[in-house]
Amino acid sequence: MSNDHALLSASGAKRWLSCPPSARLGEQYPDETSEFAAEGTDAHELCEYKLKTALGLKATNPVKGLKFYNDDMETCASGYATYILELVEAAMATCSDPVVLIEQRLDFSAYVPEGFGTGDCLVITDGTLHVIDYKHGQGVLVEAEDNPQMKLYALGALHLFDGIYDIEQVAMTIYQPRRENINTSTVSKASLYEWAEQILKPTAQVAFAGDGEFKCGDWCRWCPAKAECRARAEANLALAAYDFQAPALLDDCEIETILGKLDDLTSWANDVKEYAYQQALAGKQWAGWKLVAGRAVRRYTNDAAVADTVQAAGFDPFEHKLLGITAMEKTLGKPKFNHLLGALIEKAAGKPTLVPASDKREPYNPAANDFLEVN
Questions:
Q1: Domain boundaries, the chain
Q2: Whole-model pTM?
């Protein structure tokens, strides 16, 4: 896998397309990685190995060097490889020699200054270019439809192969196994080029120059400047215009406006608090605030010695309880789990959640839910 980094990266495309000046603003911050990102890198390495092996290509097993390797990652990577193989087999019904490219470097600098990225997997068949992107994270559900990262990968792939293969459409797939999310968006090659010329290229030029207007949204969560950005602070502090009135005193329009901003407000407040905390740890003194020691928690210094000592005294030091459903499924394996316990598993309706109207889930029907509970 390539670790190169572009200013206008494909992974950050939603942010810099929505808020062009954020690209240059983020340059002043050091590159930081999280354990989630490191885990994702490990998962991608395993996926690459699994897929190459499945295709009969030479590959070195990376497992010994993967810090976050576990059974779940193994299952996810194997499922990814199987999905690609099934895609290739299906393509062979109409195409005798589909081309599969793994971890392919893609250049989309014709539209984005110095723009490049790495595609997890490309499958080229008669008329269709398939772009597949593996997502190991389970926190945010990723959609393929109108996904700028996927579009940039597709443009990079077309740059390489459009003159060689007769490509008419592009199928972009997100493979996100830990969310049981596999979704594909298919667009015509012509519409992709139109988006690239009319929207992508001019916006990328503005972003590369550090110009444009700041705009806040859910993309702020990935911005290095998210805690200190004045535009984000002003947008969130605008809620103070409501003077924190009692909810019953707000009209419907005000409630609807606030609902649309609460998640961003909460995220921003948490980002500011975490930034202030980290700066305090580094020695900064905030007026009116101080660091104090947290509550001390008792813990064993040697688990094995504790167990031996308690057992020698005639007591059982261990808890005995039924494995949870996820742990049980991993222990038995999915087929055996379904065979042995399928009839003993029920899935209760989840608690209703208030979400934006754009959410793809069906609206909650209290009457229908009550009917199901009665029956």
A1: 13-209, 226-281, 319-346
A2: 0.73
